[in-house]
């Protein structure tokens, strides 16, 4: 019956309005396998404390195994009268182990320490899956970078042409950002590999159960050091919601570039037919919907983070039912990333770059002006003077509708006597790229090193 976990002091069952608001099985059912694993560990600890005989422990484990199989096959499902995943599974256990034995498992634990532990377990697995999908996207970006080692493109600041860069360097920048997201997932996992079992409802357990055994059996490193904090903290969820939102934002920056790069104005890249969509009215259209959805979903994941933080703000200790609102945002963020990441990976892997177009645009907008200034500095000219002289070159070229390398030797010398014809060595894209050879720069030799390092991190294809 409804309220099966707490009916003792109640003279009536819950009103339909109460039950409708309270029920959470439509989303917390994802915790079921973790709930059963934790129940098996808890049963062992009850037996170790003398609260279950060896025979009862064997019967309990067998019943829990049957329940796990029935949950996995879909044979056992939550009923409309089950309040949450924990109530549903107790009903399922009692149906398999009998009321007497099944009723013993709840000793020494509360749904509060249960859910705080199970949710961490669920999120750890989800974080691992998402991390694997990020590696796939990094691999696709890295494959493209390695396939175009010498391709130049305009590098931009303020979205204006700034200096030429290698396409591989640009793609590797996204791989770097995604790598930090993976680092954050790993770091998050280490910090929150903690079991709250033993915290009870909030004050701890009096039954001499060893919480370390439960933690160990669940693959968690430690036990929470404070039962109030153990049952009421949800910073682990908020922190992961941030990592997921940051990841979505990082993905959205590449997505936005794909949208721009595939326009007629840019013409830097073409989408594979399998990773693009058409228009119901305009026959010529090929739309970057994957990139757009990825961009849009980032807003949704930011919402999941801010919504959860708003739920947590000013909540008094310890457990409050508000905390049940902690699950849907993260479950949604995981689901969205599990859709976005594979699609972005496929789209990236099948993108065709027009390296000729990109190379032609690389020197446009006088993007070699900085090279002129820095060449002058290498000849001993103070940078302030060099910057003025290079600016004058741009002005002269622009006002006469020419490029920098169209200026004559006389015009250059007229602007500044230090501008000898030797300056032409940096007035090419290749010369400019090769000269930016500090660590992390876009010089081909540095980019090759960078790609090798990233490949070692991301793994072989
Ligand atoms: N379903 C609840 C949650 O997700 C856990 C149960 C705690 N309920 C309670 N009345 N103490 O937070």
Automatic annotation (TrEMBL):
GO molecular function: argininosuccinate lyase activity
Gene3D superfamilies named among the record's database cross-references: Fumarase/aspartase (C-terminal domain), Fumarase/aspartase (Central domain), Fumarase/aspartase (N-terminal domain)
Domain Argininosuccinate lyase C-terminal: start-end pairs: 366-433
EC numbers on record: 4.3.2.1
Coiled-coil positions: none
Protein keywords: Amino-acid biosynthesis, Arginine biosynthesis, Cytoplasm, Lyase
Cell compartments where the protein resides: Cytoplasm
GO cellular component, as recorded: cytosol
Pfam families reported for this sequence: ASL_C2 (PF14698), Lyase_1 (PF00206)
Pathway terms, separated by semicolons: Amino-acid biosynthesis; L-arginine biosynthesis; L-arginine from L-ornithine and carbamoyl phosphate: step 3/3
Any single GO BP term: L-arginine biosynthetic process via ornithine
Catalysis performed (reactions): 2-(N(omega)-L-arginino)succinate = fumarate + L-arginine
Domain Fumarate lyase N-terminal residue range list: 16-303
Family: Belongs to the lyase 1 family. Argininosuccinate lyase subfamily.
Name the record gives this protein: Argininosuccinate lyase
């Amino acid at each position: 019956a409804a309220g099966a976990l707490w009916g003792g002091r109640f003279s009536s069952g819950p009103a339909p309005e109460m039950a409708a608001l309270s029920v959470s099985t439509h989303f917390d059912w994802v915790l079921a396998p973790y709930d059963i694993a934790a129940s098996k560990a808890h049963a062992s600890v009850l037996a170790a404390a003398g609260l279950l005989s060896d025979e009862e422990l064997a019967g309990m484990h067998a019943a829990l195994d049957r329940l796990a199989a029935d949950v996995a096959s879909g044979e056992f499902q939550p009923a409309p009268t089950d309040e949450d995943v924990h109530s549903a599974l107790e009903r399922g256990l009692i149906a398999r182990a009998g009321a007497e034995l099944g009723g013993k498992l709840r000793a020494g634990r509360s749904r509060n320490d249960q859910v705080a532990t199970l949710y961490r377990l669920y999120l750890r697995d989800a974080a691992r899956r998402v991390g694997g999908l990020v590696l796939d996207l990094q691999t696709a970006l890295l494959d493209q970078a390695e396939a175009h080692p010498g391709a130049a493109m305009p590098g931009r600041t303020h979205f204006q042409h700034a200096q030429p860069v290698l396409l591989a360097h640009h793609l590797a920048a996204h791989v770097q950002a995604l790598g930090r997201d993976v680092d954050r997932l790993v770091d998050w996992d280490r910090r929150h590999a903690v079991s709250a079992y033993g915290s009870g409802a909030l004050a701890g357990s009096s039954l001499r159960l060893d919480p370390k055994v439960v933690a160990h059996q669940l693959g968690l490193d430690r036990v929470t050091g404070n039962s109030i904090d153990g049952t009421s903290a949800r910073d682990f969820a908020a922190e992961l919601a941030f990592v997921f939102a940051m990841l979505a934002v990082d993905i959205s920056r590449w997505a936005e570039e794909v949208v721009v790069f595939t326009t007629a104005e840019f013409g830097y890249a073409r989408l594979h037919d399998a990773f693009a969509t058409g228009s119901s009215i305009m026959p010529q259209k090929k739309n970057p919907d994957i990139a757009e959805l990825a961009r849009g979903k980032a807003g949704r994941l930011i919402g999941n983070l801010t919504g959860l933080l708003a739920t947590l703000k000013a909540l008094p200790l310890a457990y409050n039912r508000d905390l049940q609102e902690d699950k849907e945002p993260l479950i949604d963020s995981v689901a969205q990333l599990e859709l976005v990441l594979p699609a972005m990976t496929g789209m990236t892997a099948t993108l065709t770059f027009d390296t000729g177009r990109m190379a032609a645009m690389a020197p446009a907008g006088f993007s070699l002006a900085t090279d002129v200034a820095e060449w002058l500095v290498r000849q001993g000219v103070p940078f302030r003077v060099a910057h003025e002289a290079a600016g004058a070159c741009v002005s002269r070229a622009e006002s006469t509708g020419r490029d920098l390398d169209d200026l004559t030797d006389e015009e250059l010398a007229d602007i500044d006597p230090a501008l000898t014809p030797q300056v032409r060595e940096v007035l090419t894209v290749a010369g400019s790229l090769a000269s930016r050879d500090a660590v992390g720069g876009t010089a081909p030799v540095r980019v090759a090193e960078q790609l090798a390092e990233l490949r070692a991190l991301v793994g072989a294809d």
